[in-house]
Amino acid sequence: MTVTTPRSLGAPVERVDGLAKVTGEARYAYENGPASPVYAVPVQATVARGEVTRVDVDSVLTSPGVIAAMWCANAPRLAAGEGADAAVLQSRRVAYRGQYVAAVIAATYEQAREAARTLHVEYSAEPHDVELRADHPGLYRPSHVNPALPADTLRGDPEAALAAAPVVVDETYRTPAEHHNPMEPHATVAVWEGDGLTVYDSTQGPAASRDRLAALFGMPPAQVRVVSPYVGGGFGSKLALHPHVVLAVLAAKQVGRPVKVAVTRHEMFSVTGYRTPTIQRVRLGAERDGRLIAITHDVYEQTSTVGEFAEQAAAATRIMYAAPHRSTTHRLVRLDVPTPTWMRAPGEAPGMFALESAMDELAVACGVDPVELRVRNEPAADPESGLPFSSRNLVACLREGARRFGWAGRDPKPGVRRAGRFLVGTGVAASTYPVLRRPSRATARAEPGGGFTVRIAAAEIGTGARTVLTQIAADTLGVPLDAVRVVVGDSALPAGAIAGGSMGTASWGTAVVRACEAMNRELTSWGGTVPPLGLEASADTAEEVKTQEEYSRHAFGAQFAEVGVDAATGETRVLRMLGVFAAGRILNPRTARSQFVGGMTMGLSMALLEESVLDTEFGDYLNNDLAQYHIAACADVRDIEAVWVEEEDPHLNPMGSKGIGEIGIVGASAAIANAVHHATGVRVRDLPIRLDKLIG
Predict the structure, then answer these.
(1) Which overall architecture, per CATH, does domain 32-127+183-233+238-271 show?
(2) Neighbours of 424 (CB within 10 A)
(3) Mean pLDDT of the region 15-33
(4) Which residue of 5, 18, 356, 511 is 20 to 30 Å from 264, comparing CA positions?
C-alpha cells in the first residue's frame, strides 16, 4: 500500500510556535542574555536644535548602584564617525528633541533611571524648524525614493492634457505623522566577549542588523551575532538600526559587562522612527464617462538633518490606472525632527489614500459608479514601464467585493440615508502592493535520529513566518509537518532577507524550497538512507532572483466600508468592512486572514484615530503614549472580514505566493473617507477624520 503524505501548503495550519507564545516559553529580546546584566538608561535632549555644552557626569557617579555615565566626551568612538542617526554619543550636536545625549549605567534599572533623571545637561539652543509646508524653501528632489525608485516620473504631456480635459479633479490631501506602537517595545541586550559581540535585539532583520553593527564598530561581520528568535510586532519600526541598539553596545563596551536597554513607550516617539506626514496634490483629467486622460501626483514630505528617508507615496499611482499622460514627483525637506522610517505599507498607505480619494471625487464629478470607474480605467499592461503584469485581478476583487458587500443598487446621493441619529454611507477603494523578492540562503539537514531541521536567518515578527516556512519545507521534502523543525531569528544562520516590504515569505520560502530540493537529491544519492552523521544541503537564491523574468509584479485588492456618522456630534463608526484580495497562492488561510484583517484594522486606525501631534514650539510630539495616541480598539472594529480570489501566477516564486503583510492597510483609509462623504456630503481630505471636520 502506498502512503501519501498530506500536503500542508494551503491548509489552515495552527502556529507551530503558538504554545510557546501563550505559555511564556518564547523569549523576547529583553528576556535573553547572561545572568546579572547591568542596565543603561538614556538621557534625551530637551532642545530641538543646538549643542550640548556640559554634562555633569560626576554628580551621578556617587548615586546608588551607578557604574558609569556616558556622553560624547567619554563614550567609545564609532568607526562611522559623526553625522549619522546611529552615531550615538559621537557629537555635541543636537539634531532633534529626544535625541540621546547621555546615558547612565547602573546595577538595576531603577537606579539607572533615577540617576538619568537627575543628570544635569546644559545646552546652547538654536532656533529650530519642525513644520512641513508645501512652500518650504528647503524642499529638494531626492536622488530616489524607497526602496530605489526614481523620485519623479513623466509620460506624455499631463499639463496640456489637464488643460483640455472635460472633467478635472484638483485637490490636496494630507496625512499626519504616525508612530508604530508594537506590543513589544524595542529592547536590546549587548554582550562583549573578547573581540566578539552578541546582541539580543527585537529586530526584523538579524543579518542586516549584524552588518550595520559591524560597520559601525569597525568589525568583521563574522565577529558580530544578532539573536532575535521572537519579535512582538514591528510594523516596520524594527527594520532600521535605532539609537538604543548602538547605545547598548557602547555601554557594554564602556563597562565591560552585559548591558540591557529597554525603550519606553514615551521614548519610542523620538528614537524608533515614524511615518512621515505628507502633503499630496492629485490632479485627474478625464472624459465625461470617467476614462482618465491625465494623472499627476505631487508629494511633499519630511526627513531629518541627520538622515534621509524618502517615502514613495506616489509610486502606486504609477501602476494603478490607464492614462496616456502622467507624472509623479516627490519633494523632501530636512527639518529638526527625528528621521522617519518604514511603517506598514510605506508609501502605498498614505499615497493610495490620496489617489483613491481623488478617484472617488472623479466618480462623483462624472456621475459614474465608483466601482465602475475603476474598472473603466483598468490598464492592459503596467502604465509606467509597459511590462506585462505577472497577474492582475483588481477587477475580479472589485466585482467579488461588490457582490459580497451588497453594492448593487447603491444610491450615489450623499447625506440622504439615516439609521436613527446616524447618517449612513458606503465607500470603496482599491489596494495594491508590489511583489518583492530578495536573495536569501538556507540549509536543510536530515537528522540521523529522524526528521529534518531547516535553518535560515528569517525574522518571526508575529506573522506566522515560522509556521509557513515549516509548511513549505514539509511539502518540498514530502514529509509530515511534525517531521520538520525550522530555526530562525539568528544572524549566525544562513543570511535571509529582512521581514519587510511583504517580501519575507517569498524570499525565505524560495531559499527553503531550493535547500529542501537539494536535500532530496542528497537523500536519493544515499539511497534514501540517512548516514550516521546526518546529511546537509544548502541553497543560495542570489542568481535565481537576479535572473528572474521581467514582469510587473503586484498584489491587488478592493476595500469596502460602511460607516455611520452621528448627525449631531460627528462621531464616526465603521459599521462593517470587507477586503477582497488577489495575492497569488494563499499558503496558510489562518495566518493570511490574520494579516489581512490586521492591516485593515490598522487602516481603520489611520482613517479615524492615528495622529502624532507636533508641538512646534518645542519640536516634540505631545501625545507620546497610548493614553493619547489613539489606535483602534475592539469597539471600533465591529464587523470586519477579509477574503481572497483564486489566483495562479507562475512568475513569482516556487510557492506562487505574493506578500500579504502590507496590502491590508492600503486603501482602507480611503474607503472609509469615501464612505464618510457618502454618508454626510462632507469630503475630508486630511486624516484623521475627527469630529470637528464633520460638525456643521
Answers:
(1) 2-Layer Sandwich (3.30)
(2) 19
(3) 94
(4) 18
Task: Give Cβ neighbours of residue 533 (< 8 Å, ≥ 6 apart).
Answer: 448
For the domain covering 153-177+275-435+551-693, report its CATH number.
3.30.365.10
**Burial of 159 per CB tally in 10 Å (0-12, 13-18, 19+):** middle
Write out the DSSP string of 445-485.
Answer: EE-TTSSEEEE-B---SSSSHHHHHHHHHHHHHT--GGGEE
Grid cell of 597 as nine digits: 484583517
Count CB neighbours of 282 within 10 A. Answer: 27
What average pLDDT does the segment 519-539 reach? 96
Predicted TM-score (pTM) of the model is: 0.97
For residues 97-122, give the mean pLDDT: 98
In this predicted structure, the answer to whether residue 1 has a pLDDT above a threshold of 50 is: no
To the nearest 10°, report the CA torsion of 575, 426, 373, 691.
Answer: -90
CA distance readout (Å), 86 to 83, 217, 386, 518, 620: 9, 11, 40, 40, 20
| Rounded percentage of the chain residues whose pLDDT exceeds 90 | 98
Grid cell, residue 208, equals 542586516
Q: Residue 2: is its pLDDT beyond 60?
A: no
Q: Which CATH class is domain 18-27+438-546?
A: alpha beta
The stretch 67-90 carries a mean pLDDT of 90
Residue type at 687 in one-letter notation: L
Domain limits, the chain: 18-27+438-546, 32-127+183-233+238-271, 153-177+275-435+551-693
